[in-house]
Amino acid sequence: MFKPIVWVLCLAPLVYLIYSLYQDLGVNPIETFTNTTGIWTLRLIMITLAITPLRWLTGINQLVNYRRLIGLFAFFYASIHFITYVVTTFFVGGFSNFDASGLAADLTTRPYIVAGFTAFVLMIPLAITSTAGWIRRLGGKKWNWLHRLIYITAMAAVLHYYWKVSIKLVPVNPRNYAILVAILLAFRIWRHFAKRAASEV
Amino acid sequence: MLIKKAADIKASEVTPKELFLKRRQFIAAAGVTAAAVASNGFGLLGDDENVAAQNPAAQKFPNLKKSPFSTDEKLNSYRDVTTYNNFYEFGTDKADPGKYAGTLKPRPWTVVVEGQCAKPGSYNIEDIMKWAPIEERIYRLRCVEAWSMVIPWNGYPMSEFLKRFEPTSKAKYVQFKTLVDTKQMPGQTEPALQWPYVEGLRMDEAMHPLTLVGLGLYGEVMPNQNGAPIRLVVPWKYGFKSIKSIVRVSFVENEPLNTWKQQQSSEYGFYANVNPQVDHPRWSQGSERRLGEFFRRKTLPFNGYGDQVASLYAGMDLRKYY
Ligand code: HEM
Questions:
Q1: Complex confidence, ipTM
Q2: Where are the alpha helices (DSSP H) in chain A?
Q3: What CATH number does the domain containing B83 carry?
Q4: Would residue B231 count as lying in a domain?
Q5: B100 in a domain, yes or no?
Q6: What pLDDT does residue A178 have?
Q7: Nearest Cβ partner of B190 from A95, A106, A170?
Q8: Would you call A95 and B39 a contact, using CB atoms and an 8 Å cutoff?
Q9: Which of A119, B119, B120, B203 is least surrounded, with the fewest CB atoms within 10 Å of its CB?
Q10: Which residues of B are less than 8 Å from A96 in CB distance?
């Protein structure tokens, strides 16, 4: 019912980013673009993860209707973020010169990139299986299991941010996101045990 | 390419036009990118962006001596140079120094000279500025974070400065320290780094003709955010070596422990020569983003100053001494 609103809200950061770069590119527009799409990927992952606890807290079950859409938008931002990084980092001097070995080395050896790439790659099966057809084919139980990959994505994403900003520089923002992920995942662990205790009684 | 007459632009108009031009070109570039037809990196800088100093209040240098060491590459704009800075004394965001460095008082300023030399003492910045003719040196600046700029520095050779103090044979290194004053440098209330910021050079590096006492840029005295009133400029090393707002110079026997090495010695060393062969543990140093360009470019050994400085490191393992 509120889907159009969710669409607008999820697209707004990208529209605003492009608009503000149009107004003023600033000194390093590529960095601005990469960092902003990165932070919105992370925020949308957080919102996706917050839906289940919010549902539990508020009792508004309809919230779950928007989870898939927001998750897909997280994947959308992650894809833009990833493509920007590849194009603006590994085409050295122009499109004729692609540094494939540099990309391969980055994706496999640099801790913060490995973490970001892990987070991104794990989102791919979730995006693919997000359709009603796939939910039917897999069955709710298997589908739910598969989609717990988002927990690993969330942890890897925070690690990516943390390492990017460097560990020693008192990175307040990554730390806040780490705390948020910890709370969101702790909720699930708590619920898991609470349910089990309830079923044992 | 857009072509525009530079002559009839009033200073007050320059910034918006520059932005406008940059934006148009960026969008054009992005469009071409999407079409995937370009074969060379296209510059995003406007042709007339290298407009001169934009702080009308700043003291100007009247007669700048040209230098054969200057590059003829396209300059980064005054705005690039003065609004994108790593100067944690004013905050860790690159926009912070440009916004907050107004609290720094570069006059009066004294530099204390001490250690292994015949003429230690306190020296006044007004005198220091007269010790040698001020030159324009257009150098590439390569940050350890893999971005770069081209900056028209003003200053004179560090050797002219250091010779005056008559360093003794025991002076193997020279160490520099930045001001510590939380009122003038509010970023120092945060433990982002250990204060004061410390840097050092081997004596032969410090005396090398490329090494500069930085006193200004774009023909005006050094803007606060760029390290007023006196800083080091070493173009073949990563930017963090070029310490800003210097208050103390010490001639020492042993290698000084520089701030970033102290902070994280696995990532930052004493030498910090620009070297595409030796990656930072968290990113490649093989290429860099020249600010204003869409594509990255290859990083050159010693930031392109190898002909002049490679001999300083003959026989040294630069993987070990990074
Ligand atoms: C779920 C996936 C991801 C999330 C949530 C994410 C998040 C972020 C965030 C928040 C930043 C901003 C850091 C800052 O503001 O300083 C960032 C920067 C960055 N990310 Fe990601 N990221 C993801 C995936 C990736 C992937 C797959 C890559 C590349 C393989 C990547 C490469 C980068 C790079 C290179 C930067 C630094 C950009 C710059 O400073 O110019 N990220 N990311």
A1: 0.80
A2: 3-23, 29-58, 67-90, 100-109, 111-128, 132-138, 140-146, 149-165, 172-200
A3: 3.90.420.10
A4: yes
A5: yes
A6: 95
A7: A170
A8: yes
A9: B119
A10: 39-40
